[in-house]
Amino acid sequence: MNKIQVGFLVSYDYELLKFAIPPIYKESDEIFLAVDKNRKTWNGSDIHIEESFFEWIKAFDTDKKIVIYEDDFYQADLTTMECEIRERKLLAEKMGIGNWLIQLDSDEYFFDFKQFTKYLKNNNHFLTSKEHIQICCFKINLYKNVNGGVLYVDKFDKFMVATNQPKYKIGRHGKCRSIYVNSIALHDCLSRKREDLIQKLDNWGHNAEIDKESFMKKWDSVNETNYKDIQGFFYLDPMDWKTVEFMPGNTMNEVLQNFKNDKTMKISNWFLMKKNFGQWFKFLFK
After folding, report:
1. What pLDDT, in 10s, does the model give residues 228-252?
2. CATH of domain 4-191+263-282
C-alpha cells in the first residue's frame, strides 16, 4: 500500500514510451504497461508492436519494476470510449487499490515527476479516505512539428493524473473533486507524422466526436511562417485552442529541455489556490 503505481495504455504510439517512461522511472514503485493481447485498438483495428520495443523495455528496466499486463481490452460491443474506460479500470485493479493510481498516456512527458510524487506521499491520508479525489496537473499540448521546432498551444490544459479510487467516467476523469498541483507535462498529442496522426484520430476514444477532414485540412496548412495568421486549432471545438506559439528544438529531448528552461512555463500559486478552493466548495455538500 501507499505505493507510487504508474500505468500506461500501450497501443499504436508505443514508441513514444521511450520518451514517457524515463522521466517517471526512478520515482515509481512499479510501472504497468497494458497491452491488448490480440493487438487490437479500441475500434478493433490491428496494431503491430515490434519485438525490439520489448527488448528496449528489458534493457532499460534495470530495477525490474516494469510489468507487462496483457488482456482482452477491445470489446466489439463497446464504443471506443467505453473500451478505454474499461481498460483503465482493469489496469487500476492490476496496479493495486490502496496505492496512488497514476495513469499516463504514451505521449505525456513529465517535467518533474519527483516533485509530483513528493506531493502524493505528503498526502497519503487520501488513500484511506472514503472521499473520491483526483489529482490534476497541467500539460502543454504540442500541435505540429515544423522546421526548426514545434508549434504548441499557448495555454495550459489540465489533465487528470492520479486518483485514490479508479471510478473513471470519461477517459481518466472521475467526475469527482479535483485537486490541482503545480506539475507540468508536455503532451505530444498532435505533433506527429501525418499518417501517425490519422491513425490516432481513427483509433482513440474521441474518434466519433471529430470532424477529421476539417481538422486535417487546417493542420496540413499550418507551418512556422503562417501560424500567427491562423486561429482555432482544437480537434473538437476549434476555438478552445485559439492560438499556437513556436518552440525551437530539433529533437524531442531538445524541445523538452527548452520548455523546462522557459521561465514563463509555470503555474501561479494564486491560480492554484482559486482552482482548489472552487473544487473544495463545489463538492463540500456532495
Report:
1. 999 999 988 889 999 999 999 999 9
2. 3.90.550
